[in-house]
Specification:
This protein is 37% helix and 21% strand. It has helices at 7-18, 28-43, 60-65, 79-90, 131-141, 158-166, 182-191, 214-228; strands at 50-54, 71-76, 98-102, 116-122, 142-153, 194-202, 236-243.
Length: 246
């Protein structure tokens, strides 16, 4: 775990990961396809004008979704992640509609008020230092009726809540990481004036962070949780929320 004392510590952490960033929790293409299916299921009838992904990292989700939108913008606080994302975007058939920028989610200084149809955050909110400020910025940039889709680890997951602590394991990569429960995430979004329209759990088994033998156990628990509707056994939360009113 990396000790974080300033926002610059977070930037250095992700800058250091950028060049060799890869899927750590299983088969990259299968997991990406699964997450994209979850995102598309939440989007439903959302307007497909401008997509914004905050904390976009190397932009794997943004690039995969760019074909569905007239414009696709990615922002991240790490210059090195943005550099990698821009190189990947150059190889996209949709490169003319893609823009990737250094812009912390707490600020979104490059994004105008009421200019975004869909804002997306995948596996990044848990690392952001000032989550309430992030969500307020998201609401600011969304158009009326615009949608915010969040996929994040479930702070109420059996692994995070009880199993890892019982084994004496620290599940955080950064000292400031915080995994929200479903109720906490809903409260955060509602408190910023966003209306929750969908919530579901998604399959997230943190394979790359597990001691030997625990991966198969958690996959079985996830299977049981999915079929029985038990969120405690599911590793991820996915929520869609709308900006309503002016």
């Amino acid at each position: 775990m990396r000790e974080v004392r300033t926002p610059e510590d977070v930037v250095r952490h992700f800058d250091g990961l950028a060049a060799h960033y890869h899927e750590a929790h299983g088969h990259a293409e299968k997991l990406l396809s699964y997450r994209l299916g979850t995102i598309r299921g939440l989007l439903g009838g959302a307007q497909c004008g401008t997509l914004l992904e905050i904390g976009c990292g190397t932009a794997i989700h943004l690039l995969a979704l760019a074909g569905q939108f007239a414009h696709a913008i990615g922002t991240d606080l790490s210059p090195e992640m943005v550099n990698v994302a821009r190189r990947r975007a150059e190889a996209s058939p949709y490169r003319d509609r893609i823009s990737i920028r250094v812009d912390p989610a707490e600020e979104l200084a490059t994004i105008g008020d009421s200019s975004i149809d869909v804002a997306l955050c995948v596996g990044a909110l848990e690392h952001m230092l000032h989550k309430d400020q992030v969500v307020r910025q998201v609401r600011r940039v969304l158009k009326s009726g615009g949608m915010f889709v969040v996929l994040t680890p479930n702070g109420g997951y059996c692994w995070y809540r009880h199993l890892a602590p019982a084994l004496g394991l620290n599940v955080r990569h950064l000292s400031t990481d915080r995994f929200l429960t479903a109720g906490e995430l809903e409260g955060l979004l509602s408190g910023a004036g966003l209306q929750i329209v969908a919530r579901r759990y998604w399959r997230f088994v943190p394979q790359g962070d597990l001691p030997g033998g625990w991966g198969p156990i958690l996959r079985v628990l996830d299977w049981c949780g999915e079929r029985a509707g038990i969120g405690y056994l599911r590793g991820g939360i996915a929520i869609a929320a709308l900006r309503t009113g002016g």
